[in-house]
Design goal:
Length: about 650
């Protein structure tokens, strides 16, 4: 492709290339230039006089991206490739990188995936995290391609990891940092490719999840006014939602309500003839509890799995928890009734339900309507053995009960309020592989919080697993460390291994499977001794990479996260003893929290992707108020202003 920094190949597209092929060609040209300084021309087939690459070596070599007549002539087509599938093949005087693209609309990105796979696995490029410091480009004077013949279709058709991008919640954190959206936009302007696109996230099975309201807000307002009997009865007998409640609960056994929702869904589909699915998902949170009327309770098998639900007591103005049984039979009886009503007019439409909260266990007596797809949002599988086994057992049950199951977990949110390292890649690999072997075809992970210096290895390995669940995790960690950290790779590998051991330690004492750990217990393993040990690994890696600026820059990136973790650990230590602190200790805690705020501002402006500090603060919810923290002091604000001015 390149010899002594000079281009020797030309990138060829079909005359009417697919969007994936066009994007792949642009990426290939850009990356080859970064690698070698050579600019490969990008042309269309019409620009070739007589495309006979096999007999005319003076023309070419060709890098054929996407399907084309030339690729077909040389024996490279998408035949046999499924959605998102790739073909990487060397031919006489040519390299073919292609996918089925628009032939497989559920994932039309194959040609682009072929390019990033080639760049990663053949040319040795790695994209560890977003931004220049995360993109590893091994310089080469000459770029040669060995004999290749790889054909692969991912078993997980829809590979989606949510990115915690700008929104109302992020603005809450920006407000606490005294920053605005413009500062956010400026900090995130990078010249490197989109990380999620590079890692081959993509595909869609067309399940519409909605926002949990099941019907439009206008319909809710009308229902509340005209039919209060359609809403969930609380333990006190009232059907009034909790004051100010936006997440409304329904009396799911009410036939008139079911018919009204069917009519809303029919209206939706008639107005959108091309729409292939509708959401049946109802709200999952809020203070108002599930309906406790006799008809709804009759849908819940007494032998169902024990669980805890809640109800709102209007007299006491508070939520009360109570022991009950799984609500899965109730929830999916309700879903089935709507699906049957809608399917009479729209027999081919898909429906999207959810297994979440108090209804993650598969139903005992209800079989799902054959067109109901399911979003399973069960236990956090990175936690201790009982929770992981429960989650895997539930998964096995759901793939037998539903025609299509999407995995929509929350466990990437672990540590979202602290930004602490959460590395659990070996458990992750075991669990993704288990699910892939038993019908996993779609994922929607909530969410990559973009704490890349503390959780980036988990994000990286997860993305690789979604592309290929049979990935050798140890080999991938080895590649991550060797490619990014030069002669310090072994120390960095030990650093990550220690972080994973600490996460396992947390899991052993904290069995709560949600995204948050109570009272900051996720911070407990980070004692001064442990932090000193972790710092020692980074220091040793620094020494081993003397003179290697790129590797040292990445080590400094990891150090950003460890520095903030050390401050968080000290702050949570104060918080756990808040009621016992004297005035001097509280003053010390406030001073520490000032330093924390200044550190967060520095991370935001100097190493934006190290920790998503605006994301941490939006989830904090006045956590440190018991320590007397009222926001950054005048001195803290002034120190930041001085640095900004300089």
């Amino acid at each position: 492709m390149v010899e002594s920094h000079q281009p020797k190949a030309v990138i060829v597209l079909a005359d009417a290339p697919s969007p994936a092929a066009t994007a792949g060609a642009k990426l290939m040209a850009d990356m080859v230039f970064r690698i070698s300084g050579a600019k490969l021309p990008v042309i269309h087939e019409a620009d070739l006089q007589k495309p006979k690459a096999e007999s005319d070596p003076s023309k070419g070599p060709y890098v054929l991206i996407g399907e084309s007549e030339l690729a077909k002539q040389l024996g490279a087509t998408s035949e046999g490739l499924g959605p998102g599938g790739i073909l990487i093949r060397t031919l006489p005087n040519a390299l073919a990188l292609l996918g089925a693209d628009t032939k497989t609309p559920s994932d039309s990105g194959g040609s682009r995936y072929a390019v990033t796979t080639f760049l990663d696995e053949v040319l040795g490029c790695r994209y560890l995290w977003p931004g220049d410091s995360g993109l590893v480009i091994p310089p080469q004077d000459t770029v040669k391609v060995p004999a290749l013949d790889r054909k692969f279709t991912p078993v997980i058709v829809e590979r989606h990891i949510r990115a915690n991008e700008y929104g109302e919640r992020i603005q809450v954190g920006l407000d606490q940092l005294l920053l605005d959206k413009k500062a956010w936009d400026n900090a995130r302007k990078i010249t490197t490719p989109d990380w999620f696109v590079w890692q081959r996230m993509g595909g869609s099975l067309g399940l519409r999840a909605g926002d949990g309201s099941i019907i439009p807000r206008e319909a809710w307002t009308r229902f509340l006014k005209e039919h209060p009997e359609w809403f969930a009865m609380q333990a006190d007998g009232s059907r009034e939602p909790a004051p100010g409640e936006e997440r409304l609960r329904l009396c799911k056994s009410n036939p008139a309500l079911i018919d009204a929702i069917v009519q809303e869904k029919l209206k939706e589909l008639r107005a959108n003839p091309k729409q292939s699915s509708v959401s049946l998902i109802t709200h999952d949170g809020g203070r108002t509890g599930f309906c406790l009327c006799p008809a709804c309770k009759a849908l819940d098998p007494a032998e169902g799995r024990p669980t805890e639900i809640w109800t709102y007591d209007h007299q006491l103005s508070q939520v009360q928890k109570m022991q009950y049984v799984s609500l899965s039979d109730r929830m999916f009886w309700f879903n089935n009734q709507i699906a049957e009503g809608v399917a009479r007019e729209f027999p081919d439409v898909l429906f999207c339900g959810s297994a979440y909260s108090c209804y993650t266990a598969p139903p005992l007596h209800i079989k799902l309507h054959p067109h109901v797809g399911l979003r399973y949002a069960g236990h956090g599988l990175q936690y201790a053995t009982p929770e992981r086994q429960t989650g895997l057992t539930e998964w096995d049950g759901w793939v037998k009960a539903a025609s299509m199951v999407q995995y929509r977990p929350n466990f990437l949110l672990a540590g979202r309020r602290e930004g602490v390292p959460t590395i659990y890649v070996h458990k992750l690999a075991q669990d993704i592989r288990h699910m892939a072997e038993r019908g996993l075809v779609s994922t929607d992970f909530d969410a990559c919080m973009q704490n890349w210096s503390t959780q980036g290895l988990t994000y990286y390995v997860l993305a690789k697993l979604l592309w290929d669940p049979n990935l050798d995790v140890d080999a991938e960690i080895d590649s991550y460390c060797r490619s990014g950290f030069g002669n310090g790779w072994k120390e960095i590998e030990n650093y990550f291994a220690r972080l994973e051991a600490l996460m396992n330690q947390t899991a052993a004492v904290n069995h709560a499977p949600g995204p948050d750990t109570p009272n900051g217990t996720i911070m407990i393993p980070y004692t001064p001794e442990v932090l000193a040990e972790l710092r020692g690994y980074l220091d040793a890696a620094d020494r081993a990479t003397a003179g290697d600026a790129a590797s040292q820059r990445r080590i400094a990136f990891l150090r950003r996260g460890l520095d903030l973790t050390e401050i968080e650990a000290a702050a949570h230590s104060f918080l756990r003893r808040a009621k016992e602190l004297n005035a001097d200790e509280k003053a010390e805690a406030v001073k520490l929290l000032d330093r924390r705020w200044v550190t967060m501002r520095k991370i935001f402006t100097e190493d934006h992707y190290a920790v998503n500090v605006a994301g941490l603060l939006q989830a904090e919810d006045h956590r440190f108020k018991p320590l007397g923290w009222k926001g950054p002091s005048t001195a803290a604000r002034a120190s930041v202003a001085t640095v900004s001015a300089n």
